[in-house]
Design goal:
Blueprint lengths: L3 E5 L11 E8 L2 H13 L4 E4 L5 E3 L4 E8 L4 E4 L3 E5 L4 H10 L2 E2 L11 H7 L13 E7 L2 E7 L2 E2 L3 H15 L20 H8 L6 E2 L2 E3 L7 E3 L5 H19 L8 E3 L3
Length: 262
Amino acid sequence: MDIQQNIPLAPYTTVKIGGPADFFIHTKNSKEFIEAIKYGQEKKLPITILGNGSNILISDSGVRGLVIKNNSTEIEILPDNKVKVASGVQLSQLINFTLDNNLLGLEEFAYIPSTIGGAIIGDIHGDNKSLFSQFIDSVEKIDNFIVSAVPKLNPGDSTQAKEKVKNIIQKKSSIQPMNSLGSIFKNLPNQDPSGMIIDQKLNLKDFSIGDAQISPTHANFIINNGSASASDYLKLIRLIQSQAKEKLNLDLELEIKLLGQF
């Protein structure tokens, strides 16, 4: 294994923000991924798994211990219309693979920048608001680390499913910027969507702190216009939360995770 030290994590995130990892291993398959986990355990290092680098804001001071960038790519067709997929596989890659093999079910998760492992850990919701956990048959783990999964799929003609994926991508790509972490806040029960609250009730769309900006196209996304720091990004998050509480008595809960010391 190539074990590197003090590697900046910003290039491995969708928002291009984040300080260094003490130790860093980039794994290309499940065998390397398992070896890296065992190495971290033997050295008694805190282990952080980095998939697509979306949905996490990494602090400017970085992450202590070992960070494993998981790029495992294996997808194996099993009997009974099932597939086994490594945790580092991109969700978009799995959707395309299954549809090319006339296996349906995951279409509503199109355009979500996540690995399979990240989708399971975050239990992401799709275009129809279904949770990813509803589509998982079984998960293979080492301790708490996900190695692979077998999703629930249905055999059928993928023509209409491919059209659905195309429509979702077209709809989301026009409003959801990829130089972001995805949705910042969860939607509150019995309230307008968080993006609508930030835009229409708080009038904060476009507002910036440094190079961190509330997206002009969707107010529940914060983009990096070039050199935003994690500190800028978090200040903007806290500003939104404080105004939502002060003006509307609403507690906006983060959908993203904070990683490292803030």
